[in-house]
Amino acid sequence: MTMGVTGSPTNIHQGTRTKGGIGESTLRPDGILKVTGEFAYSSDMWHEDMLWGHTLRSTVAHAEIVSIDISQALATPGVHAVLTYDDLPTSVKNYGLEIQDTPVLAHGKVRHHGEPVALVAADHPETARRAAAKIRIDYRELPVITDEASATAPDAVLVHEGRDDHHAGHVPHPNIVHRQPIVRGDADAAAARADVIVSGEYVFGMQDQAFLGPESGLAVPAEDGGVDLYVATQWLHSDLRQIAPVLGLPEDKVRMTLSGVGGAFGGREDLSMQIHACLLALRTGKPVKIVYNRFESFFGHVHRHPAKLWYEHGATRDGKLTHMKCRIVLDGGAYASASPAVVGNASSLSVGPYVIDDVDIEAIALYTNNPPCGAMRGFGAVQACFAYEAQMDKLAAELGMDPVEFRQLNAMEQGSLLPTGQVVDSPAPVAELLRRVKARPLPPERQWEVAGEQADVRALPGGLSNTTHGEGVVRGIGYAVGLKNVGFSEGFDDYSTARVRMEVVGGVPVATVHTAMAEVGQGGVTVHAQIARTELGVAQVTIQPADTRVGSAGSTSASRQTYVTGGAVKHSCEAVREKVLEIGRRKFGSYHPAWATADLLLEGGKVVTDGGEVLADLVDVLEDEAVDIELEWRHRPTEAFDLRTGQGNGHVQYSFAAHRAVVEVDTELGLVKVIELACAQDVGKALNPLSVVGQIQGGTTQGLGVAVMEEIIVDPKTAKVRNPSFTDYLIPTILDTPTIPVDVLELADDHAPYGLRGIGEAPTLSSTPAVLAAIRNATGLELNRTPVRPEHLTGT
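RE: above sequence
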């Protein structure tokens, strides 16, 4: 003990305070393993006597299935099972995040290129692949629906006949998944008062999440008739809710454990191989592993919704915005996935971080025969930000104003009213973020000329292709700022669960944290340990593997995990702390009057007063006792948007980021080099400053990718994907990624744990339009489409 029988306290010294708590740049426990190649990803899993699964996918985008012949595949030596729709064990044959419209295996028809039709399990992956190639499918091709015109024509072929989902009664056509209007004020009357009106049509390409770890998992049949599934996913309990009914098993017999995840960005919210692996394992009675190759991965997950957006803005001569009208058409592809939520985000955030009293907004998502689209970092808000920021530059130019000053003049702030009627009730430092990125020193111009013979061609447009030595290269500078919601919205019961245990192990107090949070690279496991150290005052914290033995943590998406699961860990830690103090009061309360006060803390492995006096060692308080508590935690409730007016408090929190892009463009060859992409973002409270900067730089880089190179190309005549590989689908490498200086603001949101603000998505919004603005500034071209390609700059 740290005090004698007289109970006289000692003082805690600085060196004995708990290190590694919130606010520190604690290193990630998985960091070294990942950079050295030692981290075990889901694709690395192995089980003795396991089989390999393979999925046969449709070669056409829309067709009736006339017949399927699996006889040759079954006869292949080494094949243990071949499954089609007719082999599914229950009457539940579809799944989906919100609308259960996605078949486990196609039945009757296929609705998109690459849809799963049959499964094979064999003793070698090549055997499974070759056997699947022997399956004969007779298709009768149908007309493809690829755009709004073909989807909503009066005689349009219906992608889904007989819809009965809860959105079906509120849409003007069955090929519209969901529609959300937002009407506030009188946009037409406000337009009549405007001195300047600008409009534009914008096209946003289909972006892939491009995570490096392919979809993979291992299903192991259990003796109780259930199955254990080890898988890379974003939401274990959502997967469980969809998997168990298809298998005909109660949820407690489908035990899920998170395996190593090689990136996600929304692409793992939907199921991929989970049900398929379980079906094969239960049919064969053997463990089954499925790992997609890169080609199959492009068909195995949803993508970012491509969009067409029409905007109109008006302003007075002195630069105040008068009104906004917009129409956003999102292509959801063949199945609903997260399209309804994407529509909600796109519509409610379509105004951006600006004060506009009079708006008329409509957003829809279509059913088509294009690849299914769903969640991707910043969904819905990314497409809208690209368009409204282009509009801000147009208005500023028309008024002869500086584009940053024009934005600042119209910027929302705390207390501003959104078009949905919701008040922004936490800091909204939009003008300050713009001021900071503009105030940064610019990188030197034409650096290759200063370097002379030592010039690095990598600093030039075209890089190592050595296509230019500076002739025809023009600099451009552009700005953008965005608005993103945090957490699940529109009345969704967004909660998380955390189990925290505290005990003495090996003579030292240890905390164990168990959640079902999917660690997909965001650093949540690091933050959870920091929270536990802060709240419980112990140095040693063990993070249990995420699984379904503990309650749901929700999805690792919507910038919500640090807020919601971090909030749950904090909540459970606080309950554990109170229980520990209760034990301490029972044992030592008579030794010192401070035990009777409420202002006691756990710090440095000890119980201390708020003045730093040590009352007891945690080892002596706990002895052989363990405190184990599992609790749920919820943020403030939200509400659904009105289906006619769009009014409602739909979001729990907002995040803001601004960018300044500096580019150099070879105007003759149409090549772009982004020199710098500076960001300023309000994070509320940086729980781990190093991780915060990493998240901001990562989100910025994904926004850069869709600005100048990333797009899934779909043939408009056949709806087939043309570039399902990293050879033809390009993502930024280290050579493409510019310097990304980050300016972090910490303006606390009093409604959030520690005042934090979700950060992961906001930088993905404004980086794209900032790059486009810079290219426009360099070239004078309008450039209303992303990504920008060389032919858009050269006109060839």
